[in-house]
Amino acid sequence: MNTELKYKDITEKILGASFEVHKFLGNGFQEVIYQRALAWEMKQKGLEFAREIEQDIFYKDLPDPIGTRRADFVVASKVLVELKAIIQLEDVHLAQALNYLKAYKLKVGLLINFGSKSLTFKRIVL
User: Max alpha carbon distance in the chain (Å)?
Assistant: First the structure.
């Protein structure tokens, strides 16, 4: 049985960069501050990523999108990263990340929260 996590090498680097950001900044900043710091840390780790890519949201067979959403990062065209800076992650944040995975047609995502005393995260796999 293969118990290897999908894109483990990428997600480990992202999480390492996230822990480095949280160790330096702590909690209490706005999400955009963590986003900018994480972008710098991921560059240092050699990760390729796109930030705030706008994605169309479609409904059923409608030809035109009904809106757009932006994920914080798509790393290596494989892993979606959604950041939060809140006291505690809630089910609604997990639902948002799952919806983003579907919209971006990706299989693996990380929901990372910088707002608590210790960095918290959830690995999401479709």
Answer: 47
Q: Is residue 1 part of a domain?
A: no
pLDDT per position as a tens digit, 97-117: 999 898 888 999 999 999 999
SS3 label, residue 20: helix
pLDDT tens column, 35-46: 999 999 999 999
Phi, psi torsion values for 111, nearest 5 degrees = -105, 115
Assigned domain for 25 exists: yes
Count the alpha carbons within 13 Å of 39 in the hemisphere toward its beta carbon.
Answer: 13
- 10 Å Cβ neighbour count for 112? 28
Tell whether 47 is covered by a domain. Answer: yes
Cα separation, 3 vs 50, whole angstroms: 29
**Can you tell me whether residue 89 is helix, strand or coil?**
coil
**How much is the pTM?**
0.90
**In terms of residue numbers, what domain contains 101?**
8-125
The CATH number that applies at residue 26 is 3.40.1350
